Structures are given as C-alpha cells and as structure tokens.
Amino acid sequence: MARRVATKSDLIMEHLVPAEPIAVLAEGVAQLSSAAPALKSFRDELAGRIGDGAMAVWFGEGIEFIENKSDRILTVIVPTGFFRDRISSRFTISLRDSIQAVHGLGDWKVFILLPTEAAQKGLLGQPSNEISADKSLDIQESLPPGSESQSFSLSPPVAAGRKLKSNAPAAQKSQWPSDRREAKTGNVPGLFGPAPLKATRRLDNFIVGPCNRMAHTAALEMIKSRGASFNPLVLHGGVGLGKTHLLDGMAHAMRSNPTGGRLIQISAEAFTNSFLESLRTGQLASFRSRFRNAAALIIDDVHFIASKRATQSEFLHTFNALVADDIPIILSCDQHPKRVNRLMEELSTRFMAGMVVRLETPDPEVRRLILRTKAAARGVELPDNVVDTLGEQLRVSVRELEGALNSLIAHSVLTGRRVDLELARLVLRDSIRHTVQAIGLHEVEAALCSVFSLTHDQLHSKKTSQSISIPRTIAMYLSRRHTPSSYSEIACHYGLKNHSSVIAAENRVKQWLEEGAKTRAVGGFDTVADMLAAVQTVLGV
Fold first, then answer.
1. What Rg, from alpha-carbon coordinates, does the chain have?
2. 129: enclosing H helix or E strand
3. Which of 37, 42, 233, 416 is least enclosed, having the fewest CB within 10 Å?
4. Among 457, 478, 459, which Cα is nearest to 469's?
C-alpha cells in the first residue's frame, strides 16, 4: 500500500525536471509497499551520507518522499524550481544509493517532481496512504520545447571559476508569479523561508571555537545532568555571539529526550508580559502553576526584568521553587549577573551560585569557519579571498556575518553574478566601512574611563599605580583587538615611545587571562576577565 510523508498541496508550482536523464517512466504507479518505518530509515540513511546540515536545509519541511518498491522508483516532491535544480545536481546519487541501501535492491530510479506535476499524475490529492494505480507518469527527459516557467525561478549562485549548470538566458526569461496564483514560500527552508528551529539551531551544528567552547561544553553537561552538576546555567555576552542558539539547542535536546513534564522556553519580556496580564485578569494562581510545575525553564535576555521590582520578586519565588525541586534553569544575559544594573542582589547571587559562562567575540579563524559552514548549508562555495575578507572585516558578531552572507548570496542569485571578491566588496561596502569605523581608539578609551571612573588625563598619565596601569594595559589590548589601528598608532595615541610597549601590554593581558589572574579590587572587579567583559559590553562587542 502506498505511503507518503507530510502532504504539502499548496506549495509553489513550476515545471518538472527529472533528477537524471530518462525517456519515460513505465506506465502506471503500482501500489507502494514501503511503510513509515522504511521512510524513516531512508531519511536516516540519507542524513548519514550527506550530513545533518544538508539534510536539514534541503530535505526538511516541504519535501516529500514517495517509494514505489515494486518498480524501484523513488519520487521526491519539492516546492520550487530552485530546490529541484539544487537537489537534482547535488544529491541524485546520494538519494539513489540511500534507497538501494535501505531495501537491498539495485537499479532504483530517482525522480524529482514539482507539486503541479505530482498532482496531475495522481501523486497528490489522494488519500494519505493510497495512490491510484491507474495514473501514468509521462515524464519526459526535459521540458517541452518553447515552454517557460510562469513563476520567478532563482538559479543557485556559484563561486568564481565554477561553471553555471543552468542556462543563463533561460533563467532571464523567468517571470514573477502571475495574479492567478500566490507564491507561498513561508514553508520552504532555504533562501527566503525560515528553516524550522530544529534545522537551524541545535547543539550539534553550533560552531565551536576558543570563544565559546566553555559555553558549549556547559550546555552539553546541562543536557546530560539535567541540572545535577550545576543549576542554573547562565550564558552572557554581547549580541549575536550564539547565546540564543545554545538556548534553542538545549531546548531541542531536552524535547528530544523528555523526562516528563513541560519544558518552558520564553523570553524575559514575554515572562514579564504574562505576569502583568495574570495580575490584570486575576489569573496569578494559574501563572504560578504553569511556571513552577515546569520540567525545565529556559529564559532568554533575563536582564530585561532588571528595574522591574514586582517581576523580579515573582521570578525570584519561581526560581526558588524550581531549584528546590532540582528543575534545570537556563538563562541568557547581556553581561555578567553582578554587572546588570538594578538587578536584585537576591537574584544575582542565585544566578552566580550556578555556572556563569561568557561567550567571547569569535576570532578570525572561527569567523571563517562560520562563513564556510553557513554558505555550504545554502549550497554555495565561497572563494577563499571572499571568506578571508569578510572574516577579517566583520568582527562584531556572528549575526553580522550571517547578514553579510545572506546579502551576498541574494545579490548573486538575483543578478546572476558569480560570488567573487568584487561582488562581495560591491554589495558589502557600506557594512564593511561602518564595521571598521564603528570602534576606534577614542571609543575604547571612553569605555575604559566609564567603567573605571577615570579621566582622559589619568589614563594618559605616567602613573604606575594598579588602579591606572591595569586599565591602561587593558585599553591597549582592546584597542588592538577591536580597532584597525596598528601597534604604532596605539602607542602614539597613549604617548608611548614605541610599539613594543603595546605588544608587551597585549601579551600581558593574554597571560592574565590564561592564568585566571585576580586583581586587587581595581574598579570593583575580581578578575581581569570581568574587567574585559564590562568594557566590551560598553563597547557593544
């Protein structure tokens, strides 16, 4: 009996192109003998061959597999011509090998259909477990001569030096969708439709480097121990460094291995709004029951509740109730809990009783790896000079890197140009220029003076007391890390004789960080790492 997966009858309609050259499929589609477990096994086999990342992007929501075991035919129904072209060119062999491995039979054929053709041939619109056996598939080797797609089709971008597999003039003839039908891309993973949470934010596709290794390790331990090793887990750092990715990844892992009860993942703003609404409607008891009986609580941007006394008090009681029952609590914050202005001491001390981990700005090598991984998941191969340029210039956050990559790919797709350094500079000239100029020596100096309550003259003085020399050393380290200034320029700015003093200051801070050096109450901080975190928060990095 025929079985199919996740009918999507409202997907975008375009013409049909088979996955490999054929003349005509045998007339008639026999009853399918594959069942749901076989399809699941097939998906697992395919994921093992192409990787979880490619599986999530190209064979996630909106993709259907239909097996015809008697005729040894695998039909893949895809939402758009863009997916058809990419899957056809990249995954045909993997699809065929996977289905043959699952069933232990050779000579399988793989075809890729769009919803219109599938519906015309009786593959859609039938009962969920049946396909009419008297429907024929007259699938030709190519499109009929002179035919054109009536919907706007995007050809995939390619890196410089690679040949385009599609016919550029033909792609230029494509048109926007006519008024007779509406293009629906909301469920399409990839370029325009947001991929499902499980496909984009998991712990196994989080890119790990020196900047976030401790946070990733702590996340894995939290999943394994469910709060037995430490509770709560607090992740803090600047914007776009991966805090929400880790929170989503932990939520996904916990939902995949439930221990009973309901996991609650919510932003601090939503928690506040829900609390106020419960007060307004007299449903406070219901609100408390919901949060205090959770199996796990994950709250993003917990610093939002700072200065909101009533909300903090309610969250404190919720926190205590959950910790007393050994319920895991996972929080994210924009800075260390004790540095959050107007956060109740009762909350900050409880946060610090668990595991508090900072995510740092990614170094150049991690930024390059992120670019290559994100591009590969989109089916794009970036030239090395493009990766190096973006990784060197866009330093602030991972979100900034993803935005730049999305802009570059979109321009390449829509204009038909190859992805090369010239296009990258053209498309991202404003982003690169603003990023490089966003933080300068004066901005670093102002941040230091603000955090340590120093004046410009004090920071530039020759005094050697720790209350001034340590902030001055940190200023030179951060100037080198976050500005495009050279050693000589930094030395000149701080009135030093030569650049060797700046190099020595940079090495000294690195040594402090490696040793976990503590300070003598300079600025109220316990460690040099805490100092750096506070200054970088002011800088917004």
1. 28
2. none
3. 37
4. 459
Distance, in Å, from the CA atom of 247 to the CA atom of 265, rounded to the nearest integer, reads: 8
Question: 63-98: per-residue pLDDT in tens?
Answer: 888 888 888 888 888 887 777 888 888 888 889 888
Give bridge partners of residue 41 from the DSSP assignment. Answer: none
> Hey, what are 462's tokens?
């020759």
What digits encode the pLDDT tens for the residues 386-425?
888 777 777 667 787 888 888 888 888 877 788 888 888 8
CA 515 to chain CA centroid, Å, is 32
Q: Which residues contact 426 (CB under 8 A, 6 or more apart)?
A: none
**Residue 380 contacts residue 157 (beta carbons within 8 Å):** yes
Looking at the chain, how many residues does it have? 541
Asked whether the beta carbons of 108 and 70 are under 8 A apart, the reply is no
- In one-letter notation, the amino acid at residue 97 is D
The structure's pTM equals 0.50
**Both ends of the chain: CA-CA distance in Å?**
58
State the DSSP string of 155-224: PPP-BTTSPPSS-HHHHHT--PPPTTS----TT-BTTTBPPPHHHH--GGGSPP-TTTHHHHHHHHHHHH
Q: What is the DSSP letter of 61?
A: T
